[in-house]
Design a protein that fits this description.
single chain; six-stranded mixed β-sheet; about 5% strand
Length: about 350
């Protein structure tokens, strides 16, 4: 590789001739140190590739790379925006980098003797003279602009598709997130509803229990008031009721006795002995005699006593009186009278 001093020796004005030096690598660093060298001749060397740093030599106006072995140009070759003349004759180029359209100042281009693709070869033409090389430069720039536009459209389409895909994925993710949020909200709302129902149920149960307790208290209070009223009514009306009961019982017993007396009297009056023996005594002594001496033995002893009365009545009425007086004074009649008095005492109490 030639040194910077050697390169300076080959610099004539603004032209630097490095042709026929059997170069395989371009001395980019040394060339960058010579900004005056705006015209560079690298023809007839063995250069197979240009380094990316070569594109930083933006001061170059003319470059001759003819008769080398270049298979491709750097992707950023369009950065050489001051380039006006480019000779690529006799290399191995099949395509040009897309950035080539950026060489807006390019006025002359020779692409002869390169294995160009058919489209590019047709656009480039034969480049047999100066005029054809100038046309080649213009047509190739226009062609590369179209290629760039197509590439940009494709990039834009892919970018749009990618954006749409990303947006769709994002929308799907957002939808899934929204569904998850909705599910969480629904679950939360369901939990709140269940808790609210449980609280309402508990409140209802508490109200029912409270109402039941109040009803029980009211019932107990009513029962207590009723019991007290009953006790008071018993206290107030107990004596009156018992008095009425005793009076009713006494009246009933009196009615029974009166009825029994009437029955007995009818039975006595129906007896033949009554008209024969008793009636005369009744007529002679009157009712007091009858009530005192005849009825009590009849009530005490019944019919057997009457048979005894009958037997004495056949003799004399005085004997009947003596008999009844004797019986009235006897022990049996006294016992019956005492029992009758005790029974009457109970009824009166």
């Amino acid at each position: 590789m030639p040194k910077e001093n050697n390169l300076r020796d080959k610099l004539e004005g603004n032209e630097l001739d490095l042709s026929l030096n059997n170069l395989s690598v371009v001395p980019v660093k040394e060339l960058a140190a010579l900004p005056k060298a705006t015209r560079l001749d690298l023809s007839c060397n063995a250069i197979t590739i240009l380094p990316d740093a070569f594109c930083s030599l933006s001061h170059l106006v003319k470059i001759d790379l003819s008769k080398n072995q270049l298979g491709e140009l750097p992707h950023q070759f369009g950065l050489l925006q001051n380039l006006q003349h480019l000779d690529l004759l006799g290399n191995q180029l099949s395509i040009l980098p897309i950035s080539f359209f950026q060489l807006r100042k390019l006025k002359w281009l020779d692409l002869k003797d390169n294995p160009l693709k058919e489209d590019l070869k047709k656009v480039a033409g034969d480049c047999l003279d100066e005029a054809q090389c100038k046309k080649c430069a213009q047509r190739v720039l226009d062609y590369m602009k179209g290629i760039n536009s197509a590439v940009e459209r494709e990039k834009q389409r892919k970018l749009t598709l990618q954006r749409e895909k990303d947006a769709a994925e994002k929308a799907l993710e957002e939808e899934e997130m929204q569904l998850k949020r909705d599910k969480r909200k629904q679950a939360k709302a369901e939990r709140q509803r269940q808790q609210q129902e449980q609280r309402q149920q508990m409140n209802h149960q508490q109200q029912e229990a409270h109402r039941f307790e109040e009803e029980e208290e009211e019932v107990e209070e009513v029962e207590m008031n009723g019991t007290q009223q009953q006790r008071q009514s018993h206290k107030k009306g107990g004596g009156c009721c018992s008095w009425f009961l005793w009076m009713a019982l006494f009246a009933m017993i009196t009615a029974l006795l009166v009825g029994a007396v009437n029955i007995y009297q009818k039975e006595i009056e129906a007896n033949p002995l009554y008209s024969e023996h008793v009636k005369p005594a009744w007529d002679k002594y009157g009712s007091p005699y009858w009530s005192t001496y005849v009825i009590p033995p009849w009530n005490m002893y019944g019919d057997p006593t009457w048979q005894k009365v009958k037997s004495f009545c056949k003799e004399t009425t005085e004997d009947i009186k003596d008999f009844i007086d004797g019986k009235l004074k006897s022990r049996d009649i006294k016992k019956k009278k005492l029992k009758s008095k005790k029974f009457k005492g109970r009824n009166d109490s």
